[in-house]
Every structure is written in structure tokens, then in C-alpha cells.
């Protein structure tokens, strides 16, 4: 047989065989393409899982916001600290300051001397300073004047109030044996009389001359409006107008004798 003829005869078989191979190749290629698409879909679907993974830390990040109130909680406790810091400004501090210092005998004498001089000068600021320094408002000088007694007699009301606040002895007496109320009544210091009566000075005390505050208010002044007010205050405080002077006369009798009709009327109307 001619080889060329054989080859020519076999050509149709080769064409068919090649077609089968190409067909299979296309099928295999299509399969690979499908697999590639499927794998692409699965890899494309995996990114949505990453948001879930990133979303999961969100609650853990929310934890610091919940911890914020706990960080704020120390603020009230720290705000309570200033209230304790303000405690030293209590009333206890002035009481400690107002307590007079302990002085030596020599220093006490000098401070008391200066206090009496300041009272006689009606220097309230100096009196306050010397009281704070330990001055004794009941200490007396060589003529038996104390800061309290002199302020009461002369009507130095601011100084008088300072001495009363510092513990003045309202029953103390001057060189005439009289209380501060007697010369205050004599001089017609109406406001001073009011202060002394309120402080508890005895209204019926009799001095060495045998006179009460009411008798001196009548005998040693002019019977004017101030004296009338003094007598009115003494009567309201319970003073006895029937106490007699060394001559045996009552306050009413002295008022009538001196022509002080207004004072006499006040005594009759008591």
C-alpha cells in the first residue's frame, strides 16, 4: 500500500480525534473557569466576616466610656476636702484669740495702768487692744478709778461696752463708795444709765454721801429733760424713791423743794 494513500485515508480520523481533544480542552477550561469564579466568590464573601471581626472590638472600646463615671467619682470626694479645709475658720479660733495672755505681775500692773489711761482718754481702740493684751477692766488706779467705773461715770459708752464684755464687776464701787450708775445718773447720761441698768448694776445702792442714783439725779443737776429721763428709767427698773438722804428727805421731797415739778410728777405717778 502506498504510504501517502494511507496517510490520506487516516486524515479524517485525525481531524475527529483533534476535535475531541479540543472539545475536552474547552470543557476542562470551562471547568477551571467555573472553579475560579467559585473560588473568587468565596474569597469575595470573606471580607464581610472582617467587619464582624472589627465590630467585635467595639464593645471592648465601649468599656472605657463605662469606666469614665468611675474616674469621675473621685471628684465628689475631692470636693469634700475643701469643706474640711474651711474648718479652721470655726468660731473656736476667735475664742482662743480673745483669751487674755498670762502676764507677769510687773507686766500686768503696767498693762492695767495703760488700760485705765486709755479709758479716761475715751480711746476705744486702745482699750480694745489692751484688753486683748490681758488688761484687767476691774483694776483700779490710786484714786480707785477702774476702766469700767470711769467709762460709766463719764458716759463713754463704747469703752463701757468693751469693759462689760470683758467681765466688768457691775457691783464695784468708786472712791465715794458709789456704783457707776450713781455718777452716770447725776450727769444725765441717759444711754449710759440704760446700759448700766441692763447690765445689772444695783439701782438702790447708797454711796458714802448717803445718796442713791435717784437722789443724785435730783440733787446734783437741774431737773431738765435728761434728769427726768434718768428718774423715769430708775423708777421703771424698780428703784425706791422713798430711800431718804442724810437729812431725812425722800427723792420726792427733794424734787418738790428744788422746784422740779416734772420729776415730782413722775415719782407720784409711779
Automatic annotation (TrEMBL):
Q: Where is this region: Disordered?
A: 45-105
Q: Which residues lie in Low complexity bias regions?
A: 45-83
Q: Which organism is it from?
A: Paenarthrobacter aurescens
Q: Which domain of life is it from?
A: Bacteria
Give the organism's phylogenetic lineage: Bacteria, Bacillati, Actinomycetota, Actinomycetes, Micrococcales
Q: Which InterPro entries match?
A: Ankyrin_rpt, Ankyrin_rpt-contain_sf
DNA-binding: present as a keyword of the record? no
List keywords of the entry alphabetically.
ANK repeat, Repeat
- Secretion signal: which residues? none
Protein name, UniProt field: Uncharacterized protein
Pfam families (UniProt xref): Ank_2
What are the ranges of the ANK repeats?
Answer: 176-208
Matching PANTHER family, A to Z?
ANKYRIN REPEAT DOMAIN-CONTAINING PROTEIN 39-RELATED
Amino acid at each position: 500500500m502506498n504510504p501517502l494513500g494511507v496517510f490520506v485515508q487516516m486524515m479524517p480520523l485525525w481531524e475527529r480525534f483533534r476535535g475531541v481533544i479540543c472539545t475536552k480542552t474547552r470543557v476542562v477550561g470551562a471547568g477551571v473557569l467555573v472553579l475560579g469564579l467559585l473560588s473568587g466568590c468565596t474569597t469575595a464573601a470573606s471580607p464581610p466576616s472582617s467587619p464582624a471581626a472589627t465590630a467585635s472590638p467595639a464593645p471592648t472600646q465601649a468599656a472605657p466610656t463605662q469606666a469614665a463615671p468611675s474616674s469621675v467619682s473621685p471628684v465628689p470626694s475631692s470636693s469634700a476636702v475643701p469643706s474640711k479645709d474651711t474648718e479652721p475658720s470655726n468660731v473656736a479660733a476667735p475664742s482662743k484669740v480673745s483669751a487674755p495672755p498670762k502676764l507677769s505681775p510687773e507686766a500686768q500692773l503696767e498693762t492695767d495702768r495703760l488700760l485705765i489711761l486709755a479709758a479716761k482718754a475715751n480711746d476705744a481702740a486702745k482699750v480694745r487692744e489692751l484688753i486683748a493684751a490681758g488688761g484687767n477692766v476691774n483694776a483700779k488706779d490710786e484714786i480707785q478709778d477702774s476702766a469700767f467705773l470711769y467709762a460709766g461715770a463719764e458716759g463713754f459708752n463704747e469703752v463701757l461696752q468693751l469693759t462689760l464684755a470683758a467681765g466688768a464687776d457691775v457691783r464695784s464701787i468708786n472712791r465715794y463708795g458709789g456704783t457707776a450708775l450713781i455718777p452716770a445718773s447725776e450727769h444725765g447720761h441717759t444711754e449710759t444709765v440704760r446700759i448700766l441698768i441692763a447690765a445689772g448694776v444695783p439701782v438702790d445702792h447708797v454711796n458714802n454721801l448717803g445718796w442713791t442714783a435717784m437722789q443724785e439725779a435730783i440733787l446734783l443737776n437741774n431737773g431738765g429733760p435728761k434728769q427726768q429721763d434718768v428718774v423715769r428709767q430708775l423708777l421703771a427698773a424698780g428703784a425706791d424713791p422713798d430711800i431718804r438722804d442724810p437729812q431725812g428727805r425722800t427723792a420726792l421731797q427733794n424734787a418738790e423743794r428744788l422746784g422740779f415739778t416734772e420729776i415730782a410728777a413722775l415719782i407720784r405717778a409711779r
